[in-house]
Amino acid sequence: MHIQGIHHIAIKYEGASMLQKAIDFYHGLLHLPVLRLWGENEASVALLDTGSGCLELFANSQGLSHGIINHIAFQVDSVDEMIETVRSAGYEIILEPQDKIFPSVPPYPVRIGFCIGPGGEKVEFFKER
């Protein structure tokens, strides 16, 4: 038995309006396809395809287990373009695009940038160099 990849990351929002804002961000702005929607109003859930896993977005966080997601990282073609897209839509940028080399063996050169998503989650745009 082994892990094959990420299936989904669950994000809990407070209410249907916050869920809709999240769908507008992840589907409307970042163009992640909506695979499934279920439930109604405060019990709604959306499942979006990231290309290598899914985001599961809940409208009602009550009754769900507590936990913390540090950030969601999306591999992208252009970190700079994604940061400008979310900035233009009014989202807060918490790390401007920058090149980094993680001190792994071998060294891991990347370009990254971060914004804050609709529910306060950190979203990273990530490109290997």
Question: What descriptive keywords fit this protein?
Answer:
four-stranded mixed beta sheet, 129 residues, 19% helix, 8 strands, 2 helices, globular, alpha/beta
Describe the model.
The protein is of the alpha/beta class. Helices cover 19% and strands 39% of the residues. The protein has two helices and eight strands. The strands form two sheets. It has a four-stranded mixed sheet, covered by helices on one side. Strand 7 (108-116) and strand 8 form a beta hairpin. It is globular, with a radius of gyration of 15 Å. The model has no long low-confidence stretch (mean pLDDT 88).
The computed structural class is alpha/beta
Low-confidence stretches: none
- The count of β-strands is 8
Note the beta-strand portion. Answer: 35-45%
Give the CA-CA distance, first to last residue: 32 Å
Order of helices and strands: EHEEEEHEEE
Mean pLDDT: 88
User: Helix proportion of residues, in percent?
Assistant: 10-25%
Strand count, sense and closure of the main sheet? Answer: 4 strands, mixed
Nearest-angstrom radius of gyration? 15 Å
Strand arrangement, major sheet? 1-4-3-2
Number of helices: 2
C-alpha geometry? globular
Topology record:
Elements: E1 8-12, H1 16-29, E2 34-38, E3 45-49, E4 54-58, E5 72-75, H2 79-88, E6 93-102, E7 108-116, E8 122-128
Task: Give a short overview.
With 129 residues, the chain is α/β, with parallel strands linked by helices. It has helices at 16-29, 79-88; strands spanning 8-12, 34-38, 45-49, 54-58, 72-75, 93-102, 108-116, 122-128.
